[in-house]
Amino acid sequence: MAELRSAQWYAGTGRDAYIHRAWMRRGLPSDAFSGRPHIAIANTASELTPCNAHLDEVAASVRAGVHEAGGVPLNLPVVSLGETQVRPTAMLWRNLAAMAIEEMLRANPIDGVVLLGGCDKTIPALLMAAASVDLPAVVVPGGPMLTGTFGGTPLGCGTDVWRLSEEVRAGRLSPEEFTRSESAMIRSRGHCNTMGTASTMALLAETLGMVLPGVAGTPAPDSRLLEGAQLTGRLAVELVAADRRPSTVMTRASFYNAVVALAALGGSTNAVVHLLALAGRLGVEFGLDDVDRVGSGVPLLVDLQPAGRFLMEDFHRAGGLRAVLREIRDLLDPSARTVTGAPLVDGLEQAAIWDPEVLRPRSQPLLAEGGIAVLRGNLAPDGALVKPAAASPSLLRHRGRALVFDSVEDFHARIDDPALDVDADTVLVLRGCGPKGYPGMPEVANLPLPPKLLAQGVRDMVRVCDGRMSGTAYGTVVLHVAPEAAAGGPLGLVRTGDVIELDVPARRLHLDVTDEELARREPDPRMQARCAAPTRGWERLYVEHVRQADTGADLDFLVGSSGSAVARESH
Ligand code: FES
Known about the structure:
By secondary structure, the protein is of the alpha/beta class. The chain has 3 domains: 37-147 and 187-350, no CATH class; 148-185, no CATH class; 373-532, Glucose Oxidase, domain 1 (3-Layer(bba) Sandwich).
């Protein structure tokens, strides 16, 4: 085996090596510093990230595995992001977490890393960091929670919050009953149990090759997760010996497979922005149009909320990711490999579907064509997304009058007004919610419907936004519009009353206004006032450097890889 990276700190008899060893000894035998790989456990456990609070226990199993294989495990607490807790939106902090993790992986005397994440942004941030440092790395996803019930009905966490709150707004559920459901929503440790962003990113991390096959999707309380974590600890030591790094695992073929899986799973639209950012870190040629091209012919096989019926506990019981991949094996690129060194497709024939209601066989898909559609047009020159499987079929081709909101606050101030000039055909437009505008591109695109239309039985409307949508939400929502309004995108020029045309089969999003008229218009000053540039700190750095959604909303100076070399000593 080549000399370990950690030997740059620990080898030799000089003063600096003495300092590095002496401060780390604390009970470690001297052979811990000669020839044994040092494996960081980048741990996003935090009580303020409730979905990841159990990861210390997972880390203990990883430690055991690293020890068994002859490595030295080292706990490395890293920036953690609780999706429901941090303001103004966890997405503002994804790049901060990725940058901080990247720098700490590079700065420390480690040879490899096990990445522990769960809640939405944590696995993307960990993967982006590991990709840029490019040290041997493997992910253990923390796993979804078990299914809670309320009034005898299973609760999809996230999704049912939206559903129940709409029931209250429509007057069909009392506020007291709504509050009573709160304690039933989170049944156990683990992240959201729908096919939201956390579940999607865990399953895509495995599809990308970065998780021990078969581990992603294991519910957080299931003892098999700890078994998988221990085996992953052993594997991390093997990765160092084999010099198997993120850049050797996550190739263009891996991203191709991730898009195929995303479509078959009916995964979150948020995955697109994370995959684009990750590919940018790796220098893999992968763009927005690949998402549509590769995913659009793939059948949707998974009947999970938010668009479907079941939850992640059912998904795992029914056979999990490997069973899904088996069904679509012919659509996968067989050249893609995993952290084990073997092709992703190896051993898929041993996977089986145990519940065809939850995981459909290829012959009986939920939809013949799943995937995420990429729309373009004069309203989204650089692209916008819509998830047809989560939309109403009757709205996939639609023309309607725009009703424009310049900010989330503007929306909340007006949407409940009984005098609001809106009907079921209206297209609700929300802008000022992109990466620069909010800032941070929050999950606000799935706008709640006006109460007066809810009372009429309207359950979906076309909505257009430069922000994101929660992976646990659903509806005919056009999102990630690029360029965003605050970056000069045409969305900033739409006026209430303009006609917007959505044609998903034709991949078109069009504002029925002439080019000449658009060229004459100025962005609304109220929106511009809302999007005033922050003056200090991370927000300032972010707004000055964030790229648009169509390339992953990473910071321009974080794109690419710096590798793991650090030339200078600290003493
Ligand atoms: Fe953490 Fe949903 S809030 S995964």
